[in-house]
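This part of the workshop introduces the protein records we will be handling. An example says more than a description, so a record of this kind follows.
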Amino acid sequence: MHKVFFLVFSFFSLYTLSTAQPTFAKDVAPIIYKHCSSCHRPGEIGPFSLTNYQEASNWATSIRYVTQNKIMPPWKADPTYSRFMDENYLSDSQIKTIADWVDAGSPMGNPSDIPPFPDFPQNSLLGEPDLVLTFDRSYTHKGTGVDEYRYFVLPTGLTQNKKIKAIELRPGNTKIVHHALFFSDVSGKAKQYDDQTPEYGFSANENPDFDVFEVINRDQYPGYVPGQKPRRFPDGLAMDIKAGSDLVIQMHYAPWSVDETDSSSVNIFFADESEIIDRTVRDYIMLPFNLITGANSFFLQPNQIKTFEGVYTIPFDVSLIGIFPHMHYLGKNWEVYIENPDGSKTNLIKINDWDFNWQGGYYFDRYKIAKKGSKVHAFAK
């Protein structure tokens, strides 16, 4: 009887010991390959690769730090408030697994247990594009330590109208490309602005008659921010792009201490001819004019903490597919919801620790229905 008890007790001790020490092969590799490697691999924006055991073990301490402090993966939306597609955050148990693995000395485990590395597309996060537009030449961003917003005009060469399912920027210089916005121009006006400047592209400062609100109020395609994977619109949904149009990029170059050059490209994915597109995706940008106390309220005294509320009344029945919150360095958190005509509330997004470096778009896991007369309330602090 004593012997049986001893054997059972020994087995239990070995079992708890093995589960207390995760290995890369069985426990950590699946986490890293799913949540990290899409960006941390050759040719992508991550500053180092995480594609195998050696690379992960070399950065093990850093990985533990950024995951425990929820710096990485860079997912900011509160999952208890609303849910989205492509959510990329770690559970508490996954964070503990990584920490336990590092504390145990980052063991590899049995190499045969390592899952196959995902088959990521090359030169794209979505696959083979239908149209690739590239800079005509490189642009030099001056090392003046100042943000720069520059517009580049890329002729599409389209001979017929098309339906866009996805658009993807491939930044030429990930050190300086902070984010990008896209819209199409059929008037040729953007090209005229570009022709007036000796350097490639143009800025608002170089064209006194340039109206930035003319750009902001246009229908825009989904933009680019580092770390965000572009998405195809669901079946039956697309955005329009007209024959003969130019694609205009508003590129935000981050402040830099030395001159850097950039030559970026854009991948565009069209709807298949067989797909029936019965709904068109549009966007609306809430500006300071939407603030309930007017644009003049967009003002802060030194050391003042203030909440700004914007309200937009939905003019017709819509299905919301995503939201793109945006603030700058002083912003700390977001909350956006729909006030429905019957008085009920539909949560859209909540961000408790806004980070200007990781802004981006969030696509709902299901349509958010907003009836005519619904009010979108957006709170920024």
Observations:
- The two ends are 67 Å apart (CA to CA).
- Residues 1-18 have pLDDT under 50 and may be disordered.
- DSSP finds seven helices and 17 strands in the chain.
- Helices lie at 2-19, 24-35, 53-58, 60-68, 92-103, 189-195, 212-216.
